[in-house]
Design brief:
The protein is an alpha/beta fold. 34% of the residues lie in helices and 12% in strands.
């Protein structure tokens, strides 16, 4: 789910497209819509990607809040982002951008209770790992009108890691309120070239006895 999926969801572009294809030319086809400026974008995990999302949200006029217990206050301040608790993030967000990595602590982090805490007019966008969101709980929230929609760049069953996955297994593929993409939030031709070049340069640095620029484990 590219970040522009946020616009597709909140501006109901798919609904309008389907209406036009059915011969309906009316602005009311997507009603109700709400102005993005002044809405609250909540970001779960304010790492490099989270901060990039924040900058894009601010450009659209969102008030940006975030929760990340591993990031210092000065990072929040520099990004112009308000630090909030996890509970407040869920309660206040009009659009919740989930960026958390998959760990034992984050598996199923957004489940039935968390979705129940969100606004019924809110949207959830998961550009992190699929298993951090309980997709069955998400489907229930959408079916019961407790959430406006969702954009998912991965599913809880992580289809890319399986050979036998079919869309029929997912409770969300084909759902009218959901847009699903095959883990492509990172993708552009330029991004692919950058990733390959950077990895190659890092190998050369280490083989030349220099320290890597982005070490994962210094031990």
């Amino acid at each position: 789910m590219r970040r522009d999926g946020l616009i597709a969801l909140t501006r109901k572009l798919r609904d309008y497209d389907h209406a036009v294809q059915d011969g309906v030319w009316r602005w009311q086809s997507g009603r109700p819509l709400f102005r993005l400026r002044g809405s609250v974008m909540g970001i779960l995990s304010l790492g490099n990607i989270g901060r990039a999302i924040a900058a894009r949200g601010q450009a659209f006029g969102f008030d940006v809040i975030a929760h990340d217990p591993y990031v210092d206050d000065d990072v929040f301040t520099a990004a112009g982002v308000e630090r909030v608790s996890f509970d407040e993030l869920l309660r206040r967000s009009d659009v919740l951008m989930n960026q958390v990595p998959l760990t034992d602590a984050t598996r199923g982090l957004i489940g039935a209770d968390e979705l129940r805490a969100m606004k019924p007019t809110a949207y959830l966008i998961n550009t992190g790992r699929g298993p951090t969101v309980d997709n069955h709980a998400l489907r229930d929230a959408l079916d019961e009108g407790r959430l406006a929609g969702a954009g998912l760049d991965d599913l809880s069953e992580e289809p890319a890691k399986r050979r036998d996955w079919t869309p029929a297994e997912s409770p969300l593929v084909g759902h009218a309120k959901v847009i699903v993409t095959p883990h492509v939030a990172y993708y552009s031709e330029a991004a692919i070239e950058t990733a390959r070049t950077f990895a190659s340069e890092e190998v050369v640095r280490v083989l030349a006895g220099e320290p890597p620029r982005t070490p994962v484990n210094l031990g």
